[in-house]
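Q: Got a minute? One more chain.
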Amino acid sequence: MPRSQKVDSEYLPKINSALKRNGYPSKSKFAEHVTPSLSTVKNFFAGKPVDFEYFVEICETLGLDWQEISEKETLATDSNLPIEETSPFIIGSSIKHPSRFFGRKKELKRLFQILKRHPLQNAAIIGKPRIGKTSLLHYLKYITATPKEELRQQQKSDWLTHPEIYKWIFVDFQDSRMASRENFLNHILDNLNLKVPYPCDLDRFMDVVSDNLKNPTVILLDEIGVGLQRCEELDDEFWESLRSLATNHTGGNLAFILATHESPTELARSTGHSSPFFNIFGYTAYLKEFTELEARELIASSPIAFPEEDVEWILQQSCCVPLLLQILCSERLFSLEEGDDGEEWKEEGLLQMKPFIHLLG
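A: Always. Here it is, folded:
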């Protein structure tokens, strides 16, 4: 759904201070590390409307909660704003807006079951690279807070009884800033709207969180394998402290959900970590290909309906792997928009699939 978003003026000082806190000397330097252009970045920092997907990306890169700082009114009706078309099929980047997320119904049901009851429990999401783990983490964070008018018709969003009391914090270990223990701790406290102590070491962090965490809080750890392999400051003492917070010091209000390519215990062992943190994940969601029903739902979301023979070809060639479905659907939609009734789209689709053909193994 086309939508623009702007910053609530109350939070402008906070987002401007976030620039320097994250080590960016200027807006132009920050623009080099995100998808939006420099002009879009400048508009964001000035509180002007920017495309919704860019708004979310900039907020997350700066460690800000986009739901908290967003202007709540819908801006698409402003005649001075360009209306940008949202891509129906997304390739190469994670899916952030819940309306474009499909499938994983079984896994979502189990995940929300362990998050809707007290005490919160921890979970691991395991799957091959590019299978959709990051998109699933984004969905968990955003679905219960997204207005129904921004979702697909009859798309489920009532996973939690009181979603407004939950805090969701996304951590991407591919972000080099998260390799610093202090940056990681600052990121968590900023997203909890808690005062950051100085210096922000583990002891002070534990005190602040233990004394102030009253609402259900879920920390989503993406690409944790990168954190274990490359981040020397995130040692066993660090992970043991996080485990202690979750199990002993927050009254059951803290849970971790991590995404990885393999078992957390095996991953920790292979990277030389022995912390019991990696033994607290009671439920594991194993992400594989979509069911045929889920794949058909994704295909049917095309703004131009595909001929049935093309649907069957896409199902067969993709084996219902989400990324491959997105690639083939994108090529077919493009050909239909161009009025091309030939078969060239199939050849192009298979060509675009080649770098990811290992997902079929």
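A: Confidence is low (pLDDT under 50) at residues 73-84.
Q: Perfect, thanks.
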